[in-house]
Amino acid sequence: MKPDSKQVFKTLNPNKIWVPVLLGLGIVFYLLYSDPDLTFAQLRLVVEATPSFVILAFFVLMARDAGYLYRIRTITGKRLSWTSSFYVIILWEFSSAVTPSIVGGTAVAVFLLLKEGLNLGRSLAYVMLTAILDNFFFIVTAPMVLFLANGEVFPQMIGLESFLSTDLKYLFIISYVMIALYTLVMFYALFIRPRAFKWFLLKITSIRFLRKWRSQAYEHGDEIILASTQLAGKNSTYWIKIIASTIFIWSARYLMLNCLMAAFTDTTLRDNLVIFARQVIMWIVMLMSPTPGSSGTAEFFFNKFFQDYLGNYTLATNIFWRALSYYPYLIAGAIFLPKWVRRVFFKKEGKVKVEQ
Q1: What is the pTM of this model?
Q2: Rounded Cα distance, 113 and 122, in Å
């Protein structure tokens, strides 16, 4: 699967930032219109945030991004420089922000690594490994937080929205099962029996109505085998580092909101545990969102999950949360994409021509 440059740049299009922005704002206006408890006046409550907790939230977010840089360098065996790692992470985050969560940015990530000098086998292996690590975090953490939160994970709703509380549980179960099955299959294919996985794909696509996908199955099977060889023989230090960095990255992502909510309301240790747990559940539900970067979906579910903690501060915190954790990556992608294109398509190509 050598990514098509045209298709990748169709995804990495700065003009696409307006779609998620408009979706997010549209949901905010819908919430204001449909919920009598939410008003524009509540936006002014943002100035009541405790500055120390806002600053702490910002530093936790920066720590998460530093964790991303460290992990991609470690996963690639330091074949990427810090500068290359920075561009890869920024543009990978940008692609995730402008594409639906359910689609993902695998092709874009592989393309970025290829252009930073890694071969196809390594690029595929590192992107697949990253996806497996992230998904395993959800698979392991979700049951833990369900147990520790003791039934307080799903928000309690009343009136006409009470059905949504039940539907959220079913949506979570469906999302969790799909993520778990996909991850276990990819783990088996990448680390245990890659050739058996290819054989399975070819066997399935030998069925008459699936034959039109046989060539893609053959190609994907070869990719899995190629990627698997790149990860064979890694020592325990390698695995400890990337697993620990994955736990750190996702914990920091969620703790940022814990800090932000503490800026608006008093929270106990128990409250913080439930807030963290609800974020894990909300994120798994959001992975099934059809909108770019879960825009609109995130704003809608945020109110449902955290209004009982935030009260009148819900709308202000909601917008603050997305302003810190989502929109900066849209802006950064639009800024750094042209710089990266000049760096990898012109400077590097010019250097090759001089050397020749």
Answers
A1: 0.86
A2: 9
